[in-house]
Amino acid sequence: MIRCAGGAADVEGRAGYQRLCEQPAGPVGASGSGTGWRERRYLLVTCPAILAEIRAVLGYPRIRRRYAVTDEDVEELVALLEREALVVPGEAEVERAVPEDPADERVLACAVEAEADAIVSGDQHLLGLRAYRGIPILTVREFLEWLESGGQ
After folding, report:
1. What pLDDT, on a 0 to 100 scale, did the predictor assign at position 12?
2. Where are the domains of the chain?
């Protein structure tokens, strides 16, 4: 099964976990885009630091206003991820992999620990790496195309 790691960078753009998780249409969801997480076409990988980041980003007032996100929406999404995703510690050694933004290294650590097949992100620092330890770093769109091609 394809393992996919990602961060919360795309929350504002209604991509990232929102599109990957295929939540029902609404503030923290996307209309069913057929991405396949619910169909078990891939396994979403996360870690406690990324879950905390998702909670924080979805708590930003501008995000709350723009998407009418409630506390309940946030907790439902985080609970779904905790229940359905592979949660790893996110403590693999990746020091200085992203000197411009060391906080992005949590995504790399998560992917390395989970032996992910891809990292999905909208974060420019991560996308600039193109790959890390042989793991391709893709936008959501690239990932969905990659998934449709069978992960080739």
Report:
1. 43
2. 2-148
